[in-house]
Amino acid sequence: DIQMTQSPSAMSASVGDRVTITCRASHGIGNSLAWYQQKPRKVPKRLIYDASNLESGVPSRFSASGSGAEFTFTISSLQPEDFATYFCLQHSNYPRTFGQGTKVEIK
Amino acid sequence: EVQVVESGGGLVQPGGSLRLSCAASGFTFSDHSMDWVRRAPGKGLEWVGRSRDKSNSYTTEYAPSVKGRFTISRDDSKNLLYLQMNSLKTEDTAVYYCASLVSDIWGQGTMVTVS
Could you tell me the mean pLDDT of each successive run of 10 residues in chain A, 107 residues long? Predict the structure, then answer.
């Protein structure tokens, strides 16, 4: 199974801050990675697909990069509505595996 | 409107069984692989399993934590996806989401409590 190690598990940040989250895969997964946002009592929402492609309608302050085993997700200027938990998901192999999540909280 | 709606969650004792249903509408269900994903209280998302679509012979995949206990099936004539959960454990307590991860379609989830 491919393990996804996501860091940090939580962070405090202020509006306007740049936020960076990383996911490391235990084996290479090419670009088969997605990033999700989940707010309390809401369903997950995919923000990024195939490692670096922004979903339609997602603000351009969100971006991601990487391939193989190292991936990065960035929010260039944190907005109030961005406080949420973010997850990576590898879809290269079965079982699909999520990162542990990063909870972005208000500083 | 594209949507999936889960039902069937509830409280069950350890060792018991429960069947979740997922009703799909607004898209061609038979063309979609469908997944079950769960989130336990205070934990992250966990992929439970997948039913591939008709063109892939409806084959299934499961997470190691549920393999042999959970079974995913579907009825394309009724646009329904199922998750049969047997030999339930306390660690199966979670909100269970029906989803198409390929198309980013998610239901609101149904809570399963094993206690």
Answer: 97 96 97 96 95 97 98 97 96 97 93
Q: How many CB atoms lie within 10 A of CB A53?
A: 13
Pairing relationship of beta strands A10-13 and A102-106 according to DSSP bridges: parallel
Q: Is the dihedral of CA B51, B11, B65, A33 positive or negative?
A: positive
The continuous run of DSSP H or E covering A106 comes out as strand A102-106
Residue A92 in contact with residue A2, Cβ under 8 Å? Answer: yes
Q: Of A88, A93, A81, A69, give the one whose Cα is nearest residue A20.
A: A88
Residue A107 has a pLDDT of 85
Residue A103 forms contact with B (CB below 8 Å):
no
The predicted pLDDT at position A106 comes to: 86
Query: Hey, is the C-beta of A83 within 8 angstroms of any chain B C-beta?
Result: no
Contacts of A1 in chain B (CB under 8 A): 64
